[in-house]
Amino acid sequence: MKSKPKVVVTRRLPIEVETRMADLFDTILRDDDTPMTQAELADAISDCDVFVPTVTDEIDAAILSSASPRLRLIANFGAGTDHIDVATAHAKGIPVTNTPGVLTEDTADLAMALILAVSRRLVEGDRRLRAGEFIGWGPTHMLGHRVRGGKLGILGMGRIGQALARRATAFGLDVHYHNRRRIPKGIEDTLSATWHEDLDAMLGEVNFLSIHCPATPSTYHLINEARLAKMRPDSYIVNTARGEVIDEAALAAALKAGVISGAGLDVYEGEPDPHPDLLDLPNVILAPHIGSATHESRREMGELVLINIRAMMDHHAAPNRVLPPGATFQVAS
Ligand code: 8YV
Fold first, then answer.
1. Tally of CB atoms within 10 A around 233
2. Among 78, 86, 110, 314, which residue has the least CB neighbours within 10 Å?
3. Can you spell out the DSSP letters for 118-140?
């Protein structure tokens, strides 16, 4: 590609990323930071060489049918690509890239923070104090559960799951995991992690369950009413992955009925709105999808978007190509 590619960005990005993009490409940036409507997305994708969406954009087959014949790349700002119909993009010859790796440690930090905060009732305590309900220390006030010595179940032992395992060990948690495939023995040993082929068996054992698998048809509502019923009443669930992995209505009911003790959530099925029943429950922490919300992660995510676009322009394979299941990698011409 000889002239500068036209790059359309759907949301405001960190200013240093926008500045660099504007230097390098013919970049169309947003003035306001609201998610685009489907009509706006269809319009935006119809006239560009590179499209840069985020998790708030639903890039389905209908949007892809509006894509400009010039469209050479969808460079997602974010690691998860469940909001993009990657199979249809692939069939149309449009590569999709993402931004993995750079947000791993920050997201694992948030998962660990939620484990600590929910089991020690930190947010509930803050709310109570502000409401004037702290009338002094009491021997039986605000009791939570001890982290050290507990068992943590990690559902999805990829980069972020492994980063959480490293933190959890330092807090004295015994690490268990369920993953489609067992991770290599050497990594298991380094993480002192025990593999469970059977998710249901792991659920009955753990004090904490932290979700780190992607949202796919096979992980949809993986944690449902029946699986919640297998968990211990003194256990907690943390989700910094995707809301769709948990049946949120079933989770709200389980929390209300005391089937489990609490939850720390950063992601929701109907984002941005959590299930309404969750809003009234004291034993739930509701974070606003901030797993990668550090200046550092967001800058580095922008860097990866730039690198993927530059590689494509130079006729190299974009380094962070995402392929649909079963597809094989082909170098772009
Ligand atoms: C990102 C995320 O900030 O990377 C992901 O998949 O869930 C978030 O942490 C978001 O996707 C930005 O598009």
1. 10
2. 314
3. HHTTHHHHHHHHHTT---S--TT
Ligand 1 atom nearest to CA at 241: 7
The encoded tokens of residue 142 equal 């605000």
Segment 176-219, tens digit of pLDDT: 999 999 999 999 999 999 999 999 999 999 999 999 999 999 99
Give 329 or 310, the one with higher predicted confidence.
310
CA atoms of 30 and 281, how far apart (whole Å): 37
Catalytic (active-site) positions:
242, 271, 289
Mutate to test the pocket of ligand 1, among 103, 105, 240, 298 (most ligand atoms within 8 A of CB): 103
Angstrom distances, CA of residue 110 to CA of 116, 129, 219, 241, 329: 10, 23, 22, 11, 33
Atom of ligand 1 nearest to the CA of 80: 6
Atom of ligand 1 nearest to the CA of 81: 6
| DSSP structural state of residue 52 | E
Asked whether the whole model's pTM tops 0.90, one would answer yes
Would you report the helix, strand and coil content of the chain in percent, each value rounded to 5?
40, 15, 45
The Cα 139–Cα 183 span in angstroms is: 44
Ligand 1 centroid vs 223 CA: distance in angstroms?
21
Q: How many angstroms separate the alpha carbon of residue 224 from the centre of ligand 1?
A: 24
- Ligand 1 pocket, Cβ-based, cut-off 6 angstroms: 54-55, 77-80, 103, 291-292
Burial letters 108-141, b for 16+ CB under 10 A, else e: bbbbbbbbebbbbbbbbbeebeeeeeeeeeeeee
